[in-house]
Amino acid sequence: MPELPEVHALAHDLDQRLRDRAITRVDLASFQALKTFDPPLSALHGTLVEGVTRHGKFLDVNASGVHLVVHLARAGWIRWRDDVPKLPAKPGGKSPLAARVILDEDADGSGFTPGLDITEAGTKKSLAIYVTHDPATVPGIARLGPDPMADDFTVEVLAGILHDAGRAQLKGVLRQQGTIAGIGNAYSDEILHAARMSPFKPASSLDEGEVATLYAALRTTLDDAVTRSTGLAASELKGEKKSHMAVHGRTGQKCPVCGDTVREVSFADSSLQYCPTCQTGGKPLADRRMSKLLK
Prior knowledge:
CATH class of the largest domain: Alpha Beta
Order of helices and strands: HEEEEEEEEHHHHHHEEH
Distance between the termini: 34 Å
Structural class: alpha+beta
Number of strands: 10
Radius of gyration: 21 Å
CATH superfamily of the largest domain: MutM-like, N-terminal
């Protein structure tokens, strides 16, 4: 799933490609992906892109005051095309294509018609597309917590979040979008590994020093990932993310810090990875949803 660093880099890449370009039309290939009806998708036709930003994991293309907002969910992605097919995208079928954004034809004299393909792999379709005059009306954006990359996201803000979370586990607090925007399964694993904390440690149990440690790990992990990703093309971002993970997705491999074996806890629809030596005092976590440290 694309998380804050990848969505940030996608927004940067798309802003450079799309800014001041006209949108000729948007073809919808997956009706279930479009979550709004007013304004219609056709409101984007003939608009001029003013910029591309993000809200948490949401991409926001502002075109003449009409916003095309996309949440890529678990298996969504955006692919730039130097020349889109001449025929409009057709709804239905087994294609991963959800929507296609066609830009002004031959604007650079190349004879090509560039555009974007918004795709979603797999059979579980969760990608969401919204057309709105105000991104704050998108339910997922309206519920977002503070952005951890913002200047006003201070250690005091994090301390308040942890206090309010009570006995909730750190892993869940970090990836809850209504609490902190943009961190998902992968980067919550990486942050907790950098902070040397168990994913199941109760949020309110952290003392002042531990809160400072977690804050530093959060900012450093995200800052480093954003720095590495920004400027890369969309096609390079998935490989960049995977290649720099210390524990996430590395079950059975050696921890790059201590050399212990990275372990996993599996849930119904996801899993987490951690290093026992770095994070849980050398004790493995039981592989069940309400896991506690094995005695």
